[in-house]
Amino acid sequence: MGLAELRSQLENDGFDRHLYSFDRLSPPMEGYILEKLGDRWIIFYTERGLFRDIANFLYEGDACDFFLHTMRRAFCSPSNGTPQKNHSRLKGN
Questions:
Q1: Where are the beta strands (DSSP E) in 1-93?
Q2: Domain ranges across the chain
Q3: Which of 36, 31, 46 is nearest to 90 (CA)?
Q4: How do residues 55-69 score in pLDDT, each as one tens digit?
């Protein structure tokens, strides 16, 4: 999966755009960032302006797969795999 497909999948899954970003120039207040720095793809977790590097990858596809898995694990209901409606930052709340 590449970045374009990841963007589409996140939208199809119903994730609010305020939960993630693809650069640190427009980070979410709390959520995940996937950014290409040099020859690496870095995944950050951010909360209240603080950034924590949680994973890095050489290949875009590996980073995108991990990012989608991380978003689903963090924000989706374990019972059906869809974004939790009770999460205050998801669409429709």
A1: 20-21, 30-37, 40-47, 50-57
A2: 3-75
A3: 31
A4: 999 999 999 999 999
Model-wide pTM > 0.85: no
Q: Are 35 and 23 in contact (CB under 8 A)?
A: yes
Edge-to-edge strands, sheet with 20-21: 20-21, 30-37, 40-47, 50-57
What is d(CA 91, CA 48) in angstroms, rounded to the nearest whole number? Answer: 20
Tell me how far apart the alpha carbons of residues 74 and 90 are, in angstroms, rounded to a whole number: 12
What's the pLDDT tens digit per position in 25-60? 888 888 999 999 999 999 999 998 899 999 999 999
